[in-house]
Design a protein that fits this description.
The chain is mainly beta and 185 residues long. The chain has a domain at 41-143. It has three helices and 16 strands. It has helices spanning 37-40, 146-149, 171-174; strands at 44-47, 52-54, 57-59, 62-65, 68-70, 73-75, 78-81, 86-88, 91-98, 101-103, 106-114, 119-121, 124-125, 129-131, 136-138, 141-142. The strands form two sheets. Strands 1, 3, 4, 6, 7, 9, 11, 13, 14 and 16 form a ten-stranded parallel beta sheet that branches. It has a six-stranded parallel beta sheet with strand order 2-5-8-10-12-15, with no helix packed on it. The N and C termini lie far apart (106 Å).
Length: 185
């Protein structure tokens, strides 16, 4: 960016033996109440692949775990546990995407998704669960009962009333008719 009419300086050459620049993870801008989309675009926390975090994590940002977390994660937005990443503790968020391993409870208020490499050792609580072939859960899957209140499809038109068949009133009526005796044919 040029300031005060000065041209931009050319980028410095990268030495041949230097490590590759770290890849930036795009975060889709979502408008926040009373805020701008530009401010929301910076709201993401990345726990790097060579980072071990011991302790609880909480906040109002998306969390991307590429490394290891030993503690609870509780955020109001999305948690992504990448392939090869590990979480030793409960995870609670609006949406949880699991490509790595979680040893603890997973509680998603909207959606939980297990990718083919995803592993959970604990219960998964979510109203909507997507599980790819190859994903594993060692625990229970708990879906709230309010899902039963929502219609799966449009209501069907009323069917005509069917006549119920009444059971027989006495034991004699319940017996099959006797066969005539006589020829044993």
């Amino acid at each position: 960016m040029a300031l005060f009419g000065k041209p931009d300086a050319p980028p410095a050459p990268t030495p041949p033996n230097s490590p590759a620049p770290q890849e930036r993870i795009p975060v889709s801008p979502t408008p926040t109440p009373g805020g701008s989309a530009a401010a929301a675009a910076t709201a993401a926390t990345v726990i790097g692949s060579r980072v071990k975090l011991v302790g609880d994590v909480s906040g109002d940002e998306d969390i991307l775990v590429n490394g290891r977390v030993e503690g609870k994660i509780r955020v109001d937005r999305k948690v992504v546990v990448s392939t090869g990443a590990e979480v030793e503790g409960d995870v609670q968020a609006k949406s949880v995407i699991i490509g790595g391993r979680i040893r603890g409870q997973v509680m998603a208020s909207e959606r939980a998704e297990l990718l083919p490499t995803g592993r959970v050792q604990g219960n998964v609580h979510a109203p909507r669960i997507v599980m790819a072939e190859g994903a594993q859960i060692q625990g229970r899957v708990v879906m709230p009962n309010d899902a039963a209140k929502r219609p799966l499809s449009a209501p069907k038109p009323e069917e005509p009333a069917r006549r119920s068949i009444a059971p027989p009133k006495s034991e004699e009526a319940a017996r099959p008719p006797a066969l005539p005796s006589g020829s044993g044919g």
